[in-house]
Amino acid sequence: MALLLFLSGMVFRLTSSALSGGWVSEISIYMVTWGLLVSAAGCVAENEHIRADFFLRMTSPKLHYLADIFAALAGLIFCIVLAWFGFKVVEFAFAWDERGPSYIQIPTGYYYAALPVSMALCSIRYFILLAYLVRGGLPPEHKKS
After folding, report:
1. 95 to each of 24, 30, 136, how far by Cα in Å?
2. pLDDT in tens, 81-132
3. Scanning 62, 70, 81, 115, which has its CA 20 to 30 A from the CA of 107?
């Protein structure tokens, strides 16, 4: 959808349409940012995030298991911290009524909100993963890898 909107903005500019302007770019950037960040939780859930597990494959299953617990715990803490600070940025942007550069003046707090929402969703997924690992197993969606 964002790509179609962005391409239509190019057509608007080429035809000198009254619809041309920075609003198309602004909304496209908002849509791409939200889509990218919210999809991060799906990557955690499906075990598709980037992992440096080359060396872990050469270790014992026990060490691999402990490293998985440590990684899930570190990911959980990292995501909670980013969600908290992201929330503070959103709060600040709305308090100062910060707005985008186009003539539709979308509050930038909506753009910034993608980070705390994404990190909160990732935190939930890391918590679920950690709970499975502590109980001695992996979630069903992780067993395929």
Report:
1. 25, 20, 46
2. 999 999 999 999 999 988 877 777 889 899 999 999 999 999 999 999 999 9
3. 81
Classify 136 as helix, strand or coil. Answer: coil
C-alpha–C-alpha distance, residues 125 and 99, integer Å: 32
CB-based burial label for 74 (10 Å; 0-12, 13-18, 19+):
exposed
Q: Whose CA is closest to 123, among 85, 65, 87, 81?
A: 81
Residue 119 · residue 82 · CB < 8 Å: yes
DSSP secondary structure string, 97-108? T-B-SSTT--BH
Between residues 13 and 52, the one the model is more confident about: 52
Task: Report the C-alpha gap between 25 and 102 in whole angstroms.
Answer: 9
